[in-house]
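ok so heres the complex, two chains, lmk if somethin looks off
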Amino acid sequence: MNKRTSQRIAFGIFRILGISVVGILVGILGFIVYHGVGAVSWEFLTTAPSDGMTAGGIFPAIVGTLCLVAGSLTIAVPLGVMSAIYTTEYAGNGRVIRLIRIMTNNLSGIPSIIFGLFGMALFVNRLGFGDSILAGSCTLGLLVLPVVIRTTEEALKAIPDAFRTGSLALGATRLQTVGRILLPAAFPNIITGLILSVGRVAGETAPILFTVAAYFLPRLPESVFDQVMALPYHLYVIVTSGTDLEAARPVAYGTALVLIVLVLFMNLLASFFRKILDAKKG
Amino acid sequence: MIEAKNIDFYYGDFHALKNISMKMEAHTVTAFIGPSGCGKSTFLRLFNRMNDLIDATRLTGECRIDGADIYHKSVDVDELRKKVGMVFQKPNPFPKSVFENVAYGLRVGGMTDKNRIRQRVEAALTGAALWDEVKDKLKKSAFELSGGQQQRLCIARALAISPAILLMDEPASALDPVSTSKIEDLIHVLKKEYTLVIVTHNMQQAARVSDKTGFFMLGELVEFSDTKKMFLNPEKEETQNYLTGRFG
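and the predicted structre for the whole thing:
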């Protein structure tokens, strides 16, 4: 076989594999949309479940998931951004920093069910938050902390050193340089980290299992100490342990569809926001 | 007046500056010339302590500005850098508007009065011979300016906080001839109000703009004298060889 033929065959195979990735994604989305779209209606989005969760809507679960996304980002973003600033801008390259880096990477490798157990032990029991939005947000916040740290670090490292030296040469302190030059410049890339985190937080089931998720709770939360329903857990419940699994199947696909659309929508919103910021910077 | 006495400087084990002493008078332009890696930029960056940002460096000797030791423990480095401005080799405007670039030093220095900031920005841009070109695009991104304009913006940014000394590290090496001559004209004007120290690899430029010239080689100050004298009648053979282009 000559070189050209073997190249052609090799790249032909790569091409098929590349396209099949798209196929898989489209397949999953298509499957969910096909089965779920019939269940989704205005009523489905705005009312609570009824008839043993075989009818009615998923409004409390949507609200619950939104609460958990907001709560966990409120915890993870400040913590993550501040520690990334410390490791990239202040700490130099000593042993402590290398240890922090390794630990951050390890943190992201811990199975999410372990985070769930840890969250239950620490937030629910030891700190006495109970099964609550607060405990669930803290647990999910820890889960996505490595993602936020990592993307913020990368965003800061991508900023040319000339901005730093230029700022310092004008008599700015390092903190002023971080606040006025580096963070604004890194912001669009930090948003990317948030997008990844939102998808993760909205879709995780294991960490909320023991810390916040309610099996059936058809009312809305009133404070951060309330339990909530959440989309991924609700999905799990109606597929595995409802009163009438067959009757609940359309509701399950509808829930899955809403979850996917919700995450996509938040991603779009974030990247739209990012585009505006990029355009403003010129 | 800037005064360096018996300066030795090391990057790790590398002995970058060897026993250098030199005095620079106020309101003069001093040029440092020499082949790449001769230590001229390192020497320049001692005076606003930018070398502090590099790990594992060591300095011995004395560095004084108007009699005060700038490496004394009590010195506030941020305050020092407000008095000793710097312009870098490549234009490095911030990702902000033209106006905000010049206002930056004022704002980090704590100035909040909008009118005063506007006056100082205009004065600085005028001082850097840029005002007429940018007065209608103050709100545009600094990246929309040409390379030469960006470098003059960086000069304006340094002038805005009224330094006494301006250090320039090959300020025209990334620019075209027209922009370069604008920067050189500017240096002649700035001399009246500021003390300038300029590093350049361009000997003609040193001859055109400076009052005094220091020739560096392999970390040593080979010769330091009036620019005219050095270019017409250098004392040392190495200087003669470098100026006539026999190496470097």
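quick notes: Strands of chain B lie at 2-11, 14-24, 29-33, 57-65, 68-69, 84-87, 165-169, 195-199, 212-217, 220-226. thats all i got rn
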